[in-house]
Design goal:
The chain has about 90 residues and is an alpha/beta fold. The protein has one domain. A three-stranded parallel sheet has the order 1-2-3, covered by helices on one side. The chain is elongated and about 40 Å long.
Amino acid sequence: MALLLTQCKSSDSSTFSVPDHTPFGVCYAKVTPEQVDNYGMVIIEPDFYSKEEMSALRSTGTKIIAYVTLGEVDENRWYFNRLKEIGFVGKNDN
């Protein structure tokens, strides 16, 4: 993940530097602004948060990144059945 992030650029065309965002955390549970305040960057599950909650997390100065998986979808996602209906869901044997 860090290698991918070091090659990304933000919308303002400045470069992303991992050392500028450490320590960093990855959390799949819902967190509060107080819990992310001491981190330079936190990767979170975006479906857990409202727009207002995301703003509160960002207000800490911590870089907030949404976890997105490409190529897999959890059966509990709200859009899973729709993807299955249109034939977009297959089986990953790994």
